[in-house]
Amino acid sequence: MATLYGVGVGPGDPELLTLKAVRILSSAQVVAYPANPRGDSVALSIAGHHLPATAEHIVMAMDFVPDRRSANAAYDSGAEQIAARLAAGQDVVVLCEGDPLLFGSFAYLLPRVPTATRIEVVPGVSSLTTCAAAAVRPLALGSEPLLCLPATLPAADLARALDGVAAVAVFKVGRHLATVAAALQQAGLAEGAVCVIRASHPDQQILPLPEALQRPDGVPYFSMILARRPSP
Q1: pLDDT of 149
Q2: Strand ranges across the sheet with 92-96
Q3: What residues contact residue 200 under an 8 Å CB cut-off, 6+ apart?
Q4: What pLDDT is attached to residue 175?
């Protein structure tokens, strides 16, 4: 039976690919990945040089916007093509930025492929741990719980979720920066918070939250805020 591989390719630095990921990529028969409407793919740019020249590419082109219709259509089409290759006995490798199952695109394919599909997930270095490493700051200590939140939550939901939290990582900040900053301030978590922009990429930046708020062009989607409640 053919296998569907969900391969985490890490946050951007090609040197953060795991040895297992490289081994699977180097023998890929068919590779699938999300891309923008022009066909550009961050995941492919990270892992592409490990792929055989003979590998067939399934490009799931979509608009990266809050409206999910474009993405859903791309995943539907991609899953159909993937299922056909698997039925023909070909393994399929799906590239996923970061880790496949932590806010990962591979998770959207899982419910779309046949239930009998043999699946192997290769974990990737996540943006969560990469941002912590870039900022050289612990995510949580001792018995502290760590909350992971998408910045795309409504402001009221952010505020409720942050109430009483010891440590938090806020993903996908982008245009939601001001809303997230206000929620952190309200929760008493803004002091010492940092915004990590494009972790592990050549243009990576680590900014205190007040400096991030002063950027005239805001911060990109691939930004994360790390915050911990000050010790008493």
Answers
A1: 96
A2: 56-61, 30-35, 92-96, 3-8, 118-122
A3: 10, 11, 12, 13, 16, 130, 134
A4: 95
Contact 95, 47 (CB under 8 A): yes
* Tens-digit pLDDT profile for residues 74-113: 999 999 999 999 999 999 999 999 999 999 999 999 999 9
Q: Give the Cα separation of 153 and 141 in Å (integer).
A: 26
Of 97, 161, 158, the C-alpha closest to 127 is 97
CA distances from 105 to 12, 17, 32, 35 (A): 15, 17, 11, 11
Which residue type occupies 1? M
115: which 2 tokens? 């239930």
175, exposed or middle or buried, with CB in 10 Å at 0-12, 13-18, 19+?
Answer: middle
220 phi and psi, to 5 degrees?
-75, 170
Q: What is the pLDDT of residue 36?
A: 94
How many CB atoms sit inside 10 A of residue 196's CB?
27
Q: How many angstroms separate the CA atoms of 45 and 173, rounded?
A: 23
- Indicate yes or no: pTM above 0.85: yes
**115-145 as b/e, with b when 16 or more CB fall inside 10 Å?**
eebeeebbbbbbbbbbbbbbbebebeeeeee
Which residues of the chain are under the pLDDT cut of 70? 232
C-alpha 187 chain-centroid distance: 26
